[in-house]
Amino acid sequence: CRKTCKNCKCSRDVHEVVAEHGARARLGFVQNHDALDARTLGYTFVPPGLTSARQVDQYYSTLPSEDVPKLGSRGETVRSQRIVRQLPKQDLSLSACKFVEAQYESSYKDFISGRNQVALDVALANQRPPTASALRCSQPVHAQQISVAAPRMGDDVWHPACFK
């Protein structure tokens, strides 16, 4: 996906170009066909772990409206831009790198493998027990409230608005 316009050379943000692949696709995760259909619910993305339309609405109600990825909204573009910044395709695949010389391909693959094992994760949204508190803001996560957790981060949780 291009970062600049071919014609005017301005940033893709100006044209609101949307990335054609989501984070899960870039990471090679197979989509769960039992999962909720984001488009049916009016969104471009449903966080993994949510199992009902009510949970999805509860999750998005905690975010600023400009961050909610509703179909055709500014939030859809904002989410796409964040994914491109957080997970550029060059960080995930050697085939996306134009200038890695053959002698460095092994080092690149070793780096990516190490990074994937240690730091790369996909967070899950779900309801937490009432004893949890959010890592970023230290505020409690109340019973039945939606929170976000990344399996590699242990028991740490975040409120959806705190997790960016």
Describe, in plain words, how this protein is organized in 3D.
- The chain is mainly alpha-helical and about 160 residues long.
- The chain has 2 domains: about 80 residues, no CATH class; about 40 residues.
- About 30% of the residues lie in helices and about 5% in strands.
- Strands 1-2 form a two-stranded antiparallel sheet.
- About 5% of the residues have low confidence.
Distance between the termini: 22 Å
The main sheet comes to:
2 strands, antiparallel
Number of helices: 6
The radius of gyration computed from the alpha-carbon positions, rounded to a whole number of angstroms, is 18 Å
- The stretches of 5 or more residues where confidence is low (pLDDT under 50) are 16-23
The 3D shape can be described as: globular
Helicity range of the residues?
25-40%
Topology:
Elements: H1 12-15, H2 23-27, H3 38-41, H4 53-61, H5 74-86, H6 105-118, E1 124-127, E2 146-149
Antiparallel strand pairs: 1-2
Annotation keywords:
30% helix, PET domain-containing protein, two-stranded antiparallel sheet, globular, mainly alpha
Task: Describe, in short, the structure shown.
By secondary structure, the chain is mainly α. Helix content is 30%, strand content 5%. The longest helix is centred in the C-terminal third of the chain and has 14 residues, at 105-118.
